[in-house]
Each structure stands twice: as structure tokens, then as C-alpha cells.
Q: What sequence folds into this?
């Protein structure tokens, strides 16, 4: 699976938008871009995924660069509950059904009240 | 609540012992994944089962084994335990082999003394 690069940590003020960047310059044409987050003392939680077009859901938005070499997870209004480690993961949907996730070190987001 | 349950929540045991961790996937999910999270290695994929069959293997030690039963619950067996096996063990499930979303359980914290 292709590698991703994320900043180790970021800070945001509560109720402000947060843009979490991810670089994936070796992405292949069939790699999906996934974001998961892990709140303190919990298991990882699915946030969003996309392939080429920007995606929105109730949790966040995913903006994908035209060349797909980078993407940005956007939290529209950060709350204290959004403080977590955010993981950007590339995954090829394999026909074998082997769809495990490779987690990197992620970005630790601190939300300041 | 992801719908994935794991038991026990905490486990303390001695070196050389054997333990079994249990996971019940979300209702209807056929794929089960096991991950290990330690302070020095981060989140690592161990093994995946789909409808009772092994589909993918990660960095799983030979001392570790898993299986998925006909009712779709899964067990991870860890034997000849070492201090370095102390970690959080997460189970995740997904609907099938093509589903891109994985749902994680709350984890089992294993402490080997």
C-alpha cells in the first residue's frame, strides 16, 4: 500500500474550521483515500473516504487534489469531541477481499476551548 | 457505539501464559479484522477472516492464531506470552470483502507481567 505523510500534530480553536492535510504522492489510480480517527481510549472510527471527487458526509468533508497526490480532511466547526488522532490511509480495493488497513502515525488534533 | 463487541475489556496475565480474546462483529458483517496497538509500533494489522476463511495476514507472530466461527464471532489466541505482547488489541468488522468501511470495537487491553 502506498505511503501517506501527515503532520504529527495540529491545534485548532473550538468552533473554527480545521483543515488536516495528507500527502500521498505515490498514490495509484485505484487507491481509495480513507480517513479514520481515534479518540482517546477508544478504537478507531471511520470518518470518510473518496477516490477522485470531493466528498461530504455528516462528520466531515474530503477535498482531493486534482492530481490526487494530496487530500485534506475538513472539519467545519471543531468541537472538543473532535480532539483525536486522525489517520489518512490509502487502500486498494483488492479483488481477493483482503482489505486490511495500514495505519501510519496520524495527526494528533488538539482543540482549544 | 460501533456495534462490535470485544471481551474481556482488560486482561492481566503472566509471561508464558495463553489467553483468548473474543470479538463479535456487527450484525450482518462477514469480515473480521484483528489489529494490535502498542506504544512503540502503533496500530498494526494482524489478520483478517471472511465468513470463516482467512483472507489476509499481516505481522502476526507464530505464537498468535485466530479463527472465525460459523456464527461469525472470532477469537484471537495468544500463547507463550512475552512482556512485549502487552498492547491494545482491536477487532473490526466490515460488511463484506468489498466494503470500504471498517467498524472497530472498544479493544481489549492486555498486560503481561
A:
Amino acid at each position: 500500500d502506498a505511503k501517506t505523510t501527515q503532520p504529527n500534530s495540529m491545534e485548532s480553536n473550538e468552533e473554527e474550521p480545521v483543515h488536516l492535510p495528507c500527502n500521498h504522492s505515490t498514490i495509484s489510480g485505484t487507491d481509495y483515500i480513507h480517513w479514520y480517527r481515534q479518540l482517546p481510549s477508544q478504537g478507531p472510527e471511520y470518518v470518510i473516504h473518496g477516490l477522485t471527487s470531493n466528498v461530504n458526509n455528516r462528520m466531515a468533508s474530503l477535498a482531493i487534489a486534482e492530481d490526487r497526490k494530496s487530500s485534506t480532511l475538513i472539519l467545519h466547526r471543531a468541537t472538543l469531541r473532535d480532539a483525536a488522532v486522525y489517520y489518512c490511509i490509502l487502500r486498494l480495493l483488492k479483488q481477493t477481499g483482503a482489505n486490511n488497513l495500514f495505519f501510519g502515525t496520524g495527526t494528533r488534533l488538539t482543540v482549544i476551548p | 457505539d460501533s456495534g462490535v463487541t470485544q471481551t474481556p475489556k482488560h486482561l492481566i496475565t503472566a509471561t508464558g501464559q495463553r489467553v483468548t480474546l473474543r470479538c463479535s462483529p456487527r450484525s450482518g458483517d462477514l469480515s473480521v479484522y484483528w489489529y494490535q496497538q502498542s506504544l512503540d509500533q502503533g496500530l498494526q494489522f494482524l489478520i483478517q477472516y471472511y465468513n470463516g476463511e482467512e483472507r489476509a495476514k499481516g505481522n502476526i507472530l507464530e505464537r498468535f492464531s485466530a479463527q472465525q466461527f460459523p456464527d461469525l464471532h472470532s477469537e484471537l489466541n495468544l500463547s507463550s506470552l512475552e512482556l512485549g505482547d502487552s498492547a491494545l488489541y482491536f477487532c473490526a468488522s466490515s460488511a463484506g470483502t468489498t466494503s470500504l468501511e471498517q467498524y472497530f470495537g472498544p479493544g481489549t487491553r492486555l498486560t503481561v507481567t
About this structure: The longest strand of chain A covers residues 84-92.
